[in-house]
Amino acid sequence: MRVLVVEDEEMMAEAVCAGLRREGMAVDVALDGDAAGEQIALHPYDVVILDRDLPGRSGDDLCRELAGRGAAPRVLMLTASGGVDDRVQGLSIGADDYLGKPFAFRELVARVHALGRRRGPRTPERLERGDVALDPAGRRAWRGGRTLDLSATELRMLEVLLRAGGGAVSAEQLLEQVWDERIDPFTTAVRMAVMRLRRKLGEPTPIVTVPGVGYRLE
């Protein structure tokens, strides 16, 4: 899941980002509404955590625009204005959920996961191909019944490959779906991560290189 945190209080934004990254999500941050709009135009976010009171473009205006798009990310409004009238207004302009500050981080994570599931087809309990299996919610993976010790990045990469159903996934797609904007687009991160994942999956490798295209899972 790729998430954008739009919050003008930098310490709060970084704390939320760090926590969500520990949950295995790829997370970007924007400190004002204008920057958020630019990032949403560039990246396919699943969920946007949006403060209403932002410098530049307001959170309400951004939410209205996203609500009018056909394939927009889900919006969780995260704001100090947590009264009933505020929640009703936020939902009426297009927010999918609303959480007032202060909040319990566990609840934030649960709400983000719930919105991510609503973004697309329902996530199955297990993704499987051949003898490779993944539990997306539990962030656990197996091969031939053997539990795999994978990092958060490797789990996300394996999930993308499994969801492709045997189709090829390009390095650009992996960069877009597995990493956040901090990654250098000219990096060798994808190639190195594939090497590590292959090593952990063991022989014979189920990850096949498709020349000129990318990678697929047999």
Describe this structure in words.
The protein has 218 residues and is α/β, with parallel strands linked by helices. It has two domains: 2-119, Response regulator (Rossmann fold, 3-Layer(aba) Sandwich), CATH 3.40.50.2300; 127-217, Arc Repressor Mutant, subunit A. The protein is built from eight helices and eleven strands. It has helices at residues 10-22, 33-42, 59-67, 84-92, 105-119, 152-163, 171-178, 189-201, and strands at 2-6, 26-30, 47-50, 74-79, 97-100, 127-129, 132-135, 140-143, 146-148, 207-210, 214-217. The strands form three sheets. The protein has a five-stranded parallel sheet with strand order 2-1-3-4-5, with helices on both faces. A four-stranded antiparallel sheet has the order 6-7-8-9, covered by helices on one side. Strand 7 (132-135) and strand 8 form a beta hairpin. Helix 6 (152-163) packs across helix 8 (189-201).
- Please list the strands of the largest sheet in the order they lie side by side: 2-1-3-4-5
Number of alpha- plus pi-helical segments: 8
- Percent of sequence in beta strands: 15-25%
State the CATH architecture of the largest domain: 3-Layer(aba) Sandwich
Count of individual beta strands: 11
Profile the largest sheet.
5 strands, parallel
SS content category: alpha/beta
Alpha-carbon distance between the two ends: 23 Å
Mean pLDDT: 86
Radius of gyration: 18 Å
Poorly predicted regions are none
Oligomeric nature of the chains: single chain
Which fold name is given in CATH as the topology of the largest domain?
Rossmann fold
Shape: elongated
Order of helices and strands: EHEHEHEHEHEEEEHHHEE
Overall tally of domains: 2
The CATH homologous superfamily name of the largest domain equals Response regulator
Given this structure, which CATH class of the largest domain is correct? Alpha Beta
